[in-house]
Amino acid sequence: MTTPLLTATIDLAAVAHNVGVLRESSGTDVMAVVKADGYGHGAEAVGRAALAAGATALGTAQLTEALDLRAAGVDAPLTAWLLTQTSDFAAGIAADVDLAVSSPRALAAVVDAARRTGRQATVTLKVDTGLGRNGIAADEWQATAIATAKAIADQSVRLRAVMCHLARGDEPDHPLNSEQAERLDRCVADLRRLSVAPEVVHIANSPAALTRRDLARDLVRPGIAVYGRTPVPDISDFGLIPAMTLTAQVVLVKRISAGDGVSYGHTWVADRDTTIAILPAGYADGVPRLLSNQLEVSVNGRRFRNVGRICMDQFVIDLGPDGGGVREGDTAVLFGTGAGGEPTALDWARMVGTIDYEIVSGIRGRRVRRYVGAGADHSGVADQRGSDADLRAGGTTG
Ligand SMILES: *Cc1c(COP(=O)(O)O)cnc(C)c1O
């Protein structure tokens, strides 16, 4: 088997460990959020690993993401929450996806689909308690609650949950967190007055699951922490283990002379005779062009800096006059856990002024995913997106 030029190695044992951390910190059940193809890690593989580690459900944004998981054979409870009245609710009901509605119009469409198909829909009410994004608006709450009670009475709907999403979960002590929880509790009380009650209530994203046990209710809904990244790096890493390591094969090593410019625009010119190496990763694969002349990689335990512009497919590192002992075919670590001295996705995020959520979910293009750790060779884990590029390695980490 040839070594891929660019590899995202996903440690499923780390995912399992992180789910354990989240169960422990929240003291409750975990719905692992696997939207955006598992934050770039592979929704199906991560989802299966999280479930095997004790997560009780998976969450996605779009309904199609949940339907893809069902089609792949994932039979755990699934919730999707970015829906509109034109979503394919009949398909969602047929696949037994919990449909989290954000308006009375979406609810009406779900009820209509349930009546048409003769199957009861599982519904969550997603309430905007202060996020100011999707979720049922305050002035539509009463109508939605009453319509829900009617739909439950005629058995077209089963009310799985009432949920909300925090606006400032990453500021654990901010009063808005408790205010949002109180507003959600009032919504649940409204439903009780209508003689209906959800099976579960959930609020907490990763930062709340890690820092606000009092907001846990019946279920927490972490995403980023499942992938081993702390949402509040200034507070703690909570013992989470980053699951993704991005590596590239050195494709070319060559000598250049003092005065030679490197890459488009010659933004870097060698001030001495030196040796450079070409790495096959670029902005089309999710390496931000803004990292040009800042990015560092680790090869054989030594750090080397990117010189010249990061291109669509490749970038250049300066190995120094002695060549740093780097050879064609060597592996360069672009980011990893940091345990071996390599940069982390958080380092990248800080350099470009974003969060590591954006870095890891943006790794794409020609990278091949390779799964290691417990469950990596699970026979039910098929290659994703019809790609024959995803590889499975045996359980190599404990
Ligand atoms: C993305 C998302 C989450 C997970 O957020 P993290 O900060 O990654 O833990 C939870 N709930 C909803 C509604 C989301 O959209």
Automatic annotation (TrEMBL):
Sorted UniProt keywords: Isomerase, Pyridoxal phosphate
Enzyme class: isomerase
Superkingdom: Bacteria
Pathway listed: Amino-acid biosynthesis; D-alanine biosynthesis; D-alanine from L-alanine: step 1/1
Domain (Alanine racemase C-terminal): residue spans on this chain: 243-372
Pfam families reported in the protein's UniProt record: Ala_racemase_C, Ala_racemase_N
Cofactor(s) in the UniProt record: pyridoxal 5'-phosphate
GO molecular function, one term: alanine racemase activity
Organism: Williamsia sterculiae
Family to which the UniProt record says this protein belongs: Belongs to the alanine racemase family.
A GO-annotated cellular component: cytosol
UniProt catalytic activity: L-alanine = D-alanine
EC number in record: 5.1.1.1
Alphabetical list of InterPro entries matching this protein: Ala_racemase (IPR000821), Ala_racemase/Decarboxylase_C (IPR009006), Ala_racemase_C (IPR011079), Ala_racemase_N (IPR001608), Ala_racemase_pyridoxalP-BS (IPR020622), PLP-binding_barrel (IPR029066)
Active site annotation, chain numbering: K35, Y264
Its biological purpose: Catalyzes the interconversion of L-alanine and D-alanine. May also act on other amino acids.
PANTHER family linked: ALANINE RACEMASE, ALANINE RACEMASE, CATABOLIC-RELATED
GO terms of biological process kind: D-alanine biosynthetic process; peptidoglycan biosynthetic process
UniProt protein name: Alanine racemase
Residue numbers binding substrate: R133, M312
Location of N6-(pyridoxal phosphate)lysine modifications: K35
NCBIfam families reported in the protein's UniProt record: alr (TIGR00492)
Stretch list, region Disordered: 377-398
PROSITE patterns cross-referenced by the UniProt entry: ALANINE_RACEMASE (PS00395)
